[in-house]
Backbone:
C-alpha cells in the first residue's frame, strides 16, 4: 500500500474515511481542529462544524442511531462540554460505530488547563485507545469502529499535541467499499434512557468492560517487547516512544487500549521483571490501577506529573547521564504570541484599558488582550465564562464598581456557550456590559466558520445568525454595533454602555485580517514623520507588532517606526497620535 | 532496537515566517530518499508572532518525534534571536544554519529591552560550524521576498544526504505551480551558500 507522511490529525481523518464514516462533527479546538478540516476532502463524508462539542456529539449520536458510522472530535476541555451526552451514550451503546477523538494538551501549548482525558473514559465506562504515532492513530481508529459495533459502545481515541501535530510515515489502508445501510429503527429500550431502561443497561455496561478487558489481553495493540535485565516498563501513547528511546534494553508492555486495562497481560508481564516502571504523561492513570492490583511499581515519584514528557525529561527523572548543554542566555527578551498587525480587537482593548474597565475575559485570540501593554483582561476561565463571571461579580459589587464590569467574548465563543450566559444576565438583571468581538470567524484555531459567518465547513453558503437580533430576543434593550477601527466612536459607545444601569451589548464588528472568504480591501501602510514624532510613545501602548521604537543615538530623541511589510494600514496608530506624526504611504 | 543513526534538525523562527512549509518540504525529501522521518511542531497560540520551533528527525528508524535535549545535529534558524534562544538544545559538535534577519520581540519594540548584539559571533563562541545566510537578499534576488524559507532550505541541503534532484522533486510536490519557478531559483541560490 501507499506510504505517505501524515500528521496524527490527518491519520485520524484518513482512518475515518477508510472505516466508512458518513458523518463527522466538531467544534474547533487546538490540537484537534485539523481532523475535521481534513474530513472535507472525502466526498462521502458529511463533515460539519457544530456550535459546541455537546451539539457535535449529539449529532454524531443521531447519525449512529440511524446506522451510520460517526466521528466527533474535540480538544480535552471540549469533552467537559460534551460530557453530558457521553455518559448516557455509554449506556445506550451504538448502532453504527461511534468514535470520539479527545485531544489533550500536555504542556498547555494552547490551553487553559492540563486535564487528562483518560479519566473520562473510566468515569463514563467507555474504552479509550492511546496511539503512539500517526500509524497507530490510523490503525487504532479503524479498529475502534469495528470494536464499537462489536461491543456496542462508543470509543474514545486519546490524542495529545505531540500525536496530533507530529508527522510520521504512514502506510495507508484500503477504504471499505460498502457503507453501512442507514434508516429509522425504533428501539426504545436501548435509546430511551428513562430509569426503567437505564437500570437494565447499567449491568450491560459493567459486563462490557469486563469482556473488553479480557479480549484486549490477546489483541496486537497490547504487546510485550522482550528486554534484557531486571526492569520492565508499562507505557502507552507518545510516552512509549520516549521510554523505548531512553531504555533501549528494557522489556516493555506497550498498551494500545488504556481503559479497560488488560489485567491478565499486566500480571504476566510484571511476573517477568524485578522492577516495574510505569511511564505515562500527566496523571498516574495506569500506575494507580496497577498498584491496586497489588503490583509494586515506580511511577510518578520519578516521572513528572506536570507538563509533557520528552526524552530528556525522562533521562533526568531516572538520573541517567546527559550531555552537558551549551550555555544559553537566560535573559533573552521573550517572544510571546501577540495579536496580528491590523487585528480588529486591538483598539477595543486599548479603549478598555483607558476606561479602566474590569474585564471578564474568554477563550480566543483576544485573550491576548491580557498581555502588556494592552493589559485589559482580568479573568479567563473557559469557553463562555466571561458573561456568567460578570453577572456573578455584579451581584456582590456596589453600583460604582458594577459600572466597571465588561465581559468580552468572541463571536464564535458567544455562539458556543455565551448565549445562555447572556440569557441569565438579562433574566437576573445584571447591569454589566457585554462586548461581542465579532471578527466573523473562529480566529485562534485557524479561522473556521460558525453559524454567524454565513458559511459551512465545506464553504457552502449558510444562514447567518443575526447577533443583534439574537441579543434583542434575549431581552437586551440596548444593542449597539461599532467598527473597532473607529477609535473615538468605539470608546464613546463602550463608555456610555458601561454607565447604563442594565444589561447592554456592544458588538465590535470588523473581519479578522486573516479572513478567508471576504477579499479585504488592501490599505496602504503607514509611516512616521520623524520631525513630527515627539517621542511620547503613546502609539507603543497599542502593542502593534508593526510599530517599533528606535532609540535615539548620542542623546538625540528616539522615534517610532512602522514596518511597511507588517503594517496593514488599519490606521489606529494614526488615531491615537496627538501630533499627526503618522501618515499614509502613497 | 537502537536509535543510533538518527539525525536531528531543530528549526526555530517566528510565527508567520514559513517554517511550516519548509519543514513539510524537508520531511517529504527525506521520506523520498528512503528514511524514516518524524517531525513535531505546535500550532495554535504559537502562530501569532510568537517563538516557534519544529523538530525533524530522520534515520533508519525514529522513535520520539522530539529531539532529546542537547542532541540536535543541525540548528536551522529563520531569525537570529530565536536561533540563539535554542542553542542549548544543540550538540556541541552540531552545525548552525542561520538567517541573518532580526525581528524585534515586543519588549524590544516597546523600547524596554535591547535586541542582543552580534548573535552570529556569540554562537561561534560555542559552535565551530556556523553558516550565516542573508535569506532576504537572496530571496529578493530570486524574485520574491517571501521565498526566504526556500533559500534557507537550499543552504541546509548541503548538509544532508538527498540529491539536488530529490530536493527539486519535493519542492515541485509541495509548492503551488504559480510560485514554483521562483522557489526553485531561491533554492538554488541558497544552495550556493556553503560556509
Residues:
Amino acid at each position: 500500500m501507499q506510504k505517505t507522511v501524515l500528521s496524527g490529525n490527518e491519520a485520524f481523518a484518513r482512518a475515518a474515511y477508510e472505516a466508512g464514516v458518513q458523518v463527522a462533527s466538531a467544534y474547533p479546538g487546538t490540537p484537534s481542529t485539523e481532523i475535521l478540516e481534513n474530513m472535507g476532502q472525502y466526498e462521502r463524508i458529511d463533515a460539519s462544524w457544530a456550535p459546541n462539542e455537546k451539539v457535535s456529539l449529539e449529532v454524531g449520536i443521531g447519525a449512529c442511531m440511524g446506522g451510520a458510522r460517526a466521528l466527533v472530535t474535540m480538544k480535552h476541555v471540549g469533552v467537559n462540554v460534551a460530557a453530558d451526552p457521553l455518559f448516557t451514550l455509554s449506556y445506550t451503546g451504538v448502532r453504527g460505530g461511534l468514535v470520539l477523538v479527545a485531544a489533550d494538551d500536555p504542556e498547555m501549548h494552547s490551553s487553559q488547563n492540563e486535564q487528562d482525558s483518560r479519566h473520562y473514559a473510566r468515569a463514563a465506562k467507555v474504552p479509550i485507545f492511546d496511539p503512539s504515532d500517526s500509524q497507530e492513530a490510523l490503525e487504532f481508529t479503524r479498529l475502534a469502529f469495528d470494536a464499537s459495533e462489536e461491543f456496542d459502545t462508543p470509543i474514545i481515541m486519546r490524542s495529545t499535541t505531540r500525536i496530533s501535530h507530529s508527522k510520521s510515515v504512514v502506510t495507508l489502508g484500503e477504504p471499505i467499499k460498502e457503507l453501512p445501510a442507514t434508516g429509522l429503527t425504533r428501539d426504545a429500550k436501548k435509546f430511551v434512557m428513562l430509569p426503567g431502561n437505564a437500570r437494565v443497561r447499567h449491568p450491560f455496561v459493567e459486563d462490557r468492560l469486563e469482556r473488553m478487558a479480557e479480549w484486549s489481553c490477546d489483541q496486537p495493540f497490547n504487546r510485550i517487547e522482550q528486554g534484557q535485565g531486571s526492569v520492565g516498563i508499562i507505557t502507552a501513547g507518545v510516552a512509549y516512544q520516549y521510554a523505548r528511546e531512553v531504555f533501549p534494553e528494557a522489556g516493555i508492555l506497550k498498551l494500545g487500549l488504556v481503559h479497560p486495562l488488560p489485567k491478565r497481560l499486566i500480571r504476566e508481564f510484571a511476573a517477568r521483571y524485578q522492577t516495574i516502571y510505569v511511564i505515562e504523561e500527566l496523571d498516574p492513570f495506569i500506575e494507580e490501577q496497577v498498584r491496586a492490583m497489588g503490583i509494586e511499581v515506580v511511577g510518578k515519584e520519578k516521572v513528572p506529573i506536570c507538563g509533557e514528557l520528552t526524552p530528556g525529561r525522562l533521562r533526568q527523572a531516572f538520573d541517567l547521564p546527559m550531555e552537558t548543554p551549551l550555555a544559553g542566555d537566560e535573559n533573552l527578551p521573550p517572544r510571546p504570541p501577540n495579536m496580528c498587525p491590523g487585528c480588529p480587537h486591538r483598539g477595543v482593548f486599548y479603549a478598555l484599558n483607558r476606561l479602566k474597565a474590569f474585564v471578564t475575559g474568554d477563550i480566543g485570540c483576544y485573550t491576548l488582550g491580557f498581555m502588556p501593554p494592552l493589559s485589559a483582561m482580568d479573568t479567563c476561565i473557559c469557553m463562555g465564562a466571561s458573561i456568567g463571571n460578570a453577572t456573578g461579580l455584579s451581584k456582590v459589587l456596589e453600583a460604582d464598581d458594577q459600572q466597571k464590569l465588561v465581559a468580552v467574548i468572541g463571536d464564535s465563543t458567544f455562539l458556543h456557550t455565551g448565549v445562555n450566559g447572556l440569557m441569565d444576565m438579562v433574566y437576573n438583571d445584571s447591569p454589566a456590559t457585554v462586548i461581542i468581538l465579532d471578527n466573523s470567524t473562529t480566529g485562534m484555531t485557524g479561522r473556521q466558520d460558525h453559524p454567524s459567518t454565513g458559511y459551512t465547513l465545506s464553504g457552502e453558503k449558510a444562514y447567518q445568525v443575526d447577533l443583534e437580533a439574537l441579543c434583542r430576543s434575549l431581552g437586551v434593550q440596548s444593542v449597539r454595533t461599532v467598527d473597532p477601527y473607529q477609535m473615538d466612536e468605539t470608546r464613546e459607545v463602550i463608555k456610555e454602555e458601561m454607565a447604563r444601569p442594565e444589561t447592554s451589548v456592544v458588538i465590535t464588528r470588523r473581519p479578522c485580517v486573516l479572513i478567508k472568504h471576504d477579499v479585504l480591501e488592501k490599505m496602504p501602510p503607514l509611516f512616521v514623520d520623524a520631525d513630527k514624532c515627539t517621542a511620547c510613545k503613546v502609539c507603543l501602548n497599542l502593542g502593534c507588532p508593526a510599530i517599533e521604537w528606535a532609540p535615539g543615538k548620542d542623546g538625540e530623541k528616539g522615534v517610532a517606526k512602522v514596518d511597511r511589510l507588517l503594517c496593514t494600514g488599519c490606521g489606529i496608530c494614526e488615531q491615537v497620535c496627538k501630533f499627526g506624526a503618522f501618515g499614509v504611504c502613497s | 532496537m537502537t536509535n543510533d543513526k538518527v539525525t536531528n534538525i531543530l528549526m526555530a523562527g517566528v510565527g508567520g515566517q514559513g517554517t511550516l512549509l519548509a519543514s513539510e518540504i524537508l520531511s517529504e525529501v527525506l521520506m523520498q530518499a528512503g528514511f524514516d522521518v518524524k517531525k513535531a511542531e505546535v500550532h495554535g497560540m504559537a502562530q501569532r508572532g510568537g517563538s516557534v520551533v519544529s523538530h525533524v528527525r530522520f534515520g533508519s528508524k525514529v522513535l520520539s518525534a522530539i529531539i532529546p535535549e542537547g542532541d540536535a545535529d543541525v540548528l536551522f534558524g529563520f531569525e537570529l534571536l530565536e536561533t540563539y534562544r535554542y542553542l542549548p538544545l544543540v550538540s556541541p559538535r552540531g552545525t548552525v544554519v542561520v538567517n541573518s534577519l532580526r525581528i524585534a520581540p515586543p519588549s524590544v519594540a516597546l523600547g524596554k529591552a535591547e535586541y542582543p548584539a552580534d548573535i552570529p559571533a556569540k554562537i561561534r563562541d560555542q559552535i565551530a560550524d556556523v553558516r550565516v545566510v542573508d535569506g532576504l537578499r537572496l530571496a529578493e534576488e530570486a524574485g520574491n521576498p517571501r521565498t526566504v524559507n526556500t533559500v534557507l532550505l537550499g543552504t541546509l541541503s548541503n548538509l544532508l544526504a538527498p540529491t539536488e534532484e530529490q530536493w527539486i522533486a519535493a519542492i515541485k510536490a509541495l509548492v503551488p505551480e504559480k510560485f514554483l519557478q521562483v522557489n526553485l531559483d531561491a533554492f538554488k541560490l541558497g544552495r550556493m551558500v556553503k560556509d
User: Anything to note?
Assistant: The radius of gyration of chain B is 16 Å. Chain B is about 35% helix and 20% strand. The CA atoms of residues 56 and 119 of chain B lie 24 Å apart. The longest strand of chain B covers residues 90-99.
